[in-house]
Amino acid sequence: MRSVSKKTGGALRTLFAQTIDGLAVHDAYVSVNQGPDGSVETVYSTYRSLTVTAPAAPSLARRAAEEAAQRAAGITDLRHPSRSELVWLAAPGSRARLT
């Protein structure tokens, strides 16, 4: 887990992103909300118990992955350069797949 954001306004909300080998797990977070006195008020989690079963290498090169994602989303033109990063995706059987 790594801390990715903190917000204050009397209370404190800290968001942690789940990681495997330093790379983020897609849409896997733990959010801790604390009151002004520091007491924990709520915890929300999308943490996944995952096992890496394949080598930690992507199946597609960066450009090929961007093109495949754009095709799947029906995108034909970008207003800004795209930003890509390696992330782990949850796969069937509680496994993680690097994409």
Provide an overview of this structure.
The protein has one helix at residues 62-73; strands spanning 2-8, 12-20, 23-34, 40-45, 51-52, 88-91, 95-98. The protein has 99 residues and is mostly beta strands. The mean pLDDT is 85. It has one domain.
Short synopsis of the structure:
With 99 residues, the protein is mainly β.
The helix fraction, in percent, is 10-25%
Which word captures the global form? extended
DSSP strand tally: 7
Mean pLDDT: 85
* Radius of gyration over C-alpha positions, nearest whole angstrom: 17 Å
Strand-residue fraction?
35-45%
List keywords for this structure.
99 residues, mainly beta, four-stranded antiparallel sheet, three-stranded mixed sheet, extended
